Amino acid sequence: MNEFPPPRQRGLVxxxxxVIFLSLLSGLALWLTLNRAVGLVFSLYxxxxxxxxxxxxxxxxxxxxLLRANYLLDRNVLRLVWGLRVQEIPVTDxxxxxxxxxxxxxxxxxxLKLPGGILGVTQQPDLGRVEFLASETENLTxxxxxxxxxxxxxxxxxGFLQAFQKTLExxxxxxxxxxxxxxxxxxxxxxxxxxxxxLWLAGILLNTGLMxxxxxxxxxxxxxxxxxxxxxRALEPVPGAQLLLLPFLSSFLFIIGxxxxxxxxxxxxxxxxxxxxxxxxxxxxxxxxLSLIFILSTPV
Length: 300
What we know:
By secondary structure, the chain is of the alpha+beta class. Helices cover about 50% and strands about 20% of the residues. The chain has helices spanning about 10-35, 40-70, 155-170, 185-190, 195-215, 245-265, 270-295; strands at about 1-5, 70-75, 75-80, 85-90, 95-100, 115, 115-125, 130-135, 140-145, 150, 180, 225, 240.
């Protein structure tokens, strides 16, 4: 099977830099939040923290998807891989392959078109639905089937076009069914397991309950102590708003566990690892809840 990966270097640098920047921004926003009294400024810092934190796993996944991205071609199938997105197109279903530069009408790109991640679906006036699985616009190439058009960006464009032409001339050895797999497919497959569903719901309820409880307590709290030093003395009291650190850390660990578990759940032989990760996420959230009870019962 011939491999024609997309350009990766520039996209990886940009996405990793964004993840680092957002991590630093969320850390700064959290520190500012914990050191402010409840009020408008407190709410703005909290909002900044939440927004920056949400985008960290998004750009992190995009970097992972680019690292794994590849276009593979043999006599039977053209396989497009982009992270957890996999599209297998039988060679016999391909109607034409054409670089975008050769088209008379420009192709409408997705709205989020960072180098290393030109992803999404657009409607083109003359082509219909076009799904983008590309990293750069320079070598952007369209692969058309009877039902859909795919936009890809092999780094060795000439090599890809020559290999595809040669494949067509040789003909397919067997008829291969097309396969279309989306990241949501793994999510739905895991959700159909009763154990997994209960673990996810338990983690969500524990973290939501922890957040709601602490948020309702903060206006009436003065100062709290968050632990003890090496000789067992209570640490210096801090503003009650710093208790928000508990649900933030708990939710962050839960999300990391959820995503990493889905990574393991892709393969049947690794599903027990995914379940172990999700169990540990629920247990961790429960211990965060216990720690809040202990903190509230500790005299300042």
